[in-house]
Predict the structure of Choline sulfate-utilization transcription factor.
Amino acid sequence: MADKLQLPPLQALVVFEAAARLGNFTAAGNELGLSQPAVSQRIQTLESRLNAPLFERRHRGVQLTESGHSLYLIVRSSLNDISEQLERTRRQRSVLRIDTDMGFASYWLLPRMERLQALIPGVEVQVTTSPNDYNFRDSNADLAIYFGLGNWPGAQTQRLFPEIVFPVCNQEIKQKIGAENNAEQLLRYPLLKLPETRPQRWITWEDWFRHHQVYGQSHSASRTFNAYSLVIQAALEGQGIALGWQPLIAPFIASHQLVQCGPQVRTERGYYLISASHKPPSTQQEKIKAWLLDEAWGFHENSALIAGI
């Protein structure tokens, strides 16, 4: 067992630090919520314990003696170290931030938040969203989930979901289309889409038609929305046909609010779990990472069963 530390009362050291820093017992008392006599009494106790004067009492304050100055440097540094470590521990234990995009947050992450939160009780989980691509330098998140090729500099990535896309519509439009999943016939209906990006971040309607060898078809009835949630809402209302990304579209397919109305396309992109590569993850981060990977694996298994694979 380690030897017991030979220390004076810690409150006396805190009072000493304030008095030395402010150069005045009254000011130190005001900062700490103590009277001037109480500050003076604690300083006297400390001086008696050390058998050395720490201050020279002057008419308008106090000044450190040589012994007092040496002690102040040590006490101030030690209290700073304790304060910084407490703040790091507080942040590490009380908040875990996850960055992602609005579509993934709304349709996949938020429905699972209660189970995620149960893994780290007492920790506030913050979910922040951005329409922009992930940028390691600009992110203060503990973890991130973003769509791309998984090649973000300065980050460790693990793919959760590949990009699997197929057209979806509501039941009313599906009845008009019929049972045949013919790519070209979708051109007869309004196509709901997101704005194009440069560089291109996800598959577009043009990509989807090209993949199914439908070329040179103009389509003036398209409707563009600046958020995927608006695209899906328009599809639910029967305003047209949207491209549905797995796993975002899965709840609407399961509830039959939307149905698949064309063949799928799979690309090399996907949703990736991202963490910093330059620092070890906390225990909370490790728990959440393992859980997210398990949830993704479970989704893939269920999708394979439904498809009859």
